[in-house]
Amino acid sequence: MVDTTHFKGNSPGWVSLDFSDDGEGWSSVVESTPVGADALNQVAIDFPRHAAFVRLSIHPDGGVARLRVMGRADIDVAGATRLAYVNSLYPPEAHRFFHTACASRTWAEEMAAARPFASVEDLHHRAGPAFDKLTGADWAEAFAGHPRIGERGDATANREQGGTAGAGDQTLGELAEVNRAYEERFGLTYIVYASGKTTEEMLAIARTRLGSTKEEEIATAAAEQRRITDTRLRRMTCQEPS
Length: 242
Hints:
The protein has 242 residues and is an alpha+beta fold.
């Protein structure tokens, strides 16, 4: 978008766009196209392009308030930038970063202490051994960091439980009841990998898991926690849309 807001008598008549991956070799993407004065001008390209640099040219001259390029960040570049950020954090900030992915303090401490990570893949690889060190109390703390299925939480949890957004009162009531039954039986918060699941699916899974022993249920819930954390880490390192 070429923004010429406030440029009325001195806006450009035409603009063109060039893209580059290295800042040296350039290819023309948009030939001279007219733009209006004091306006938000949408300039379309014919198909998606990869670029590290964008060059705007104005013809013959004039003022532009802003150029906004719409697109998605390259996951390799974005991941490397985020990895450098994570590696540079002081220990308390690093602990908070990982605590948003899993509420176990032990796990977050293990991950913060494992830095620096050599790559985004290395960061994800270290999550497994950090989980292997958790005790029953650590797992219970991790599970308790999630809102009950069907209840509101933070933005991350609400997105993950998006399947409950359109549930009716009866279904939500049944879900609340099964949450209570689960907590009474196991002394844990019921968690499930909720992304992509409907309320009815999560309800059916909970009812099935009520037939497990506590040892079996801790193992099942731990596997769900690992999946949830892996997805969160992928989003936090720009490998998936957040």
